[in-house]
Amino acid sequence: MPHSNxxxxxxxxxxxxxxxxxLAALRAEIDAIDDQILALFEQRLAxxxxxxxxxxxPTGPHTKxxxxxxxxxxxxxxxxxxxxxxxxxxHLWREIVGWxxxxxxxxxxxxxxPIEPTRAYDGARLRFGAAADIKMVRDPQKALAFAAExxxxxxxxxxxxxxxxxGLRREWSMLSVFDGYGGETPTSLAVGKIDPPALPKGxxxxxxxGGDAGDGGGARRWGLxxxxxxxxxxxxxxxxxxxAEGCVGAIG
Length: 252
Known about the structure:
alpha+beta, 4-stranded antiparallel sheet, 9 strands, CM_II_prokaryot, Chorismate_II_sf, chorismate mutase
């Protein structure tokens, strides 16, 4: 019988070190957690799509945004998480909420910021998440007109000479400020056709004739910009949007 040159090749058995075994176990644990996260995330997306059909206010069509609800959800999560994880939790939940909102219709965001455009764009991206369709525009009035249609929102700089915000008391009175970006004294504001009861709890945004002396009631006030005798400011006073005090919205 001729001698066969075929040799069986057996896989070499490699013994893992204790460190490698521990790492493999941790990776398996992460995989199991990822599976749970995926299942819960997809479940949340399905529920969010159903919620969207119940959001239209009885007074007329508004954007699907509910800043008050988002504020409540985020505050609840931040109160439950460990302090060292707060920043990560905030970013994660912004994305989760953003993708849930996208199941109700992808949010369109127009950003106008001739000064520090990156700062305004990054603020919008953090607020609305990667699911939102965000683009820079050159005309604040066109962005306001877009927001007035109720299908999207505008993020507009206020640290400029263009006093677009004066229109919130006049031709754009159907719009409300609902967020601000740039720190304690924001340099840009988000506006949209928001159902008034859905505005966040926090400082009110006021547009008034005259200076920034306040209302005399002792409420703290932050001046944001002035133009030809008109002022836009933040106040801690409890004001109702659309009333005579010039309240045009609120930021958390």
